[in-house]
């Protein structure tokens, strides 16, 4: 940075001295001054190019560091806050804003800095050449700032509105592309095109408003600086006529004033870009100042661990809440959570891994408060399988290891332990089969098999499983069932059961209703005793199968709606 600044300063000095030499040439043309002028201008160009190149390298390295810091800040936000942000918004903050600021610094920042150095050098030499320049240059600069100061916030506001319009325009197109199958089959393409046209028209309107505000800034600044140029020309001729100023001085002064006018106009013309850059900086500061997940804490106790909930009360602002839940899951046993949609099952399991922060003293793993436990260590010990498993555009082996340094043999052993040898063998390239975009597409059940293998490779102590609700073919369902049993063997498990038949593989059942634990105990006992679980079994069919009962009671039918999340 110091080298770039030094090169820019020397270039400004060389160019200003060139104006003085040019004035001398006008008065007395000679080979020596002409060669000196050529050397000064060539040296200024070389120094400017060197400084710009060095400065671009500095900005590029700073941009890389900023991207890394923004990525860390974005990904270390608490999950509820991250869930509220659209993917496109996070990408814009991490990728677009640093690029915007870096581009602005490389182009506009360098130009404005260079303009400032050259303007100061021109002002000093012009003042030494003709004393009124000491007053005229700062006066015009103040007038330009005063004339454009009120319009600058307008340009900034219009830029923000334009950015919002661009985001809405892109979001609408993204939604249309993501839902293209539903859009076409429901004959909604005409509506999508119409909405796209509406957003495009609004975008063009806001772009036009920004351009008009920017043009007003340019017009005002140009009128003032060119008025200075005209005044110098008229005043300089009069000074030469009165023999106050010589021809060499007039030429030097005119060249210097032209340089000052050009640099000042350039700064004024770049005001919209500067305002846009300030907006990006504001968004960057906002993300860098976002709260992060807590760091530090105690390690998870070694060996098999149990789960305890003690008087857990938790709620989302203005809506759902869990109330006074007390539950004990001994180490190595599995509990099945059942209840209608919105009962609180998903909220409860999110609290176990601190995807949502629980109140202190309410959730314990291995007898230790999860709030006092190191978050990274907790998530290494508590493995979560959601209904939707995210697959990477990578091989099956890489999707299992998530690019961690895990031996290939261990991946194969984990899949074999889950009884998935035949399934892996049926894939085109086995462990090397590419999944995701451009690769093999898996069903929802098969995606969960990959998630099971991830947990087995990590050797988690606790398994939290949100059973897939998507209908599976018999072969896939058999694979998922067998893999689930093998994954839970010897581990503490919490399963959100959307099919009551799943509860047969659990040691205990916990029934939730409207955020309250209404029944808990061994499945066999709950199935015999009168209560909510028995009503659920009766409503879903005899013996807990998935076949519908002939005529369930209203209360049982209400509780039997077991799919969904809280």
Structure description:
- With 566 residues, the chain is α/β, with parallel strands linked by helices.
- It has helices at residues 2-27, 31-75, 79-83, 87-129, 133-149, 151-178, 180-185, 189-241, 247-269, 271-288, 345-352, 375-381, 396-401, 408-417, 421-426, 444-458, 474-488, 523-528, 532-540, 554-559, and strands spanning 307-315, 321-329, 334-338, 363-365, 368-369, 382-385, 462-466, 492-496, 508-513, 516-522.
- Helix 4 (87-129) runs antiparallel to helix 5 (133-149), helix 5 runs parallel beside helix 9 (247-269) and helix 6 packs across helix 10.
- The protein is elongated and about 115 Å long.
Short summary:
Helices cover 62% and strands 10% of the residues. It is of the alpha/beta class.
Summarize this structure as a short list of keywords or feature phrases.
566 residues; alpha/beta; ABC transporter transmembrane region fold; Rossmann fold; six-stranded mixed β-sheet; four-stranded antiparallel β-sheet; 10 strands; elongated; transmembrane helix; ATP binding; ABC_transporter-like_ATP-bd
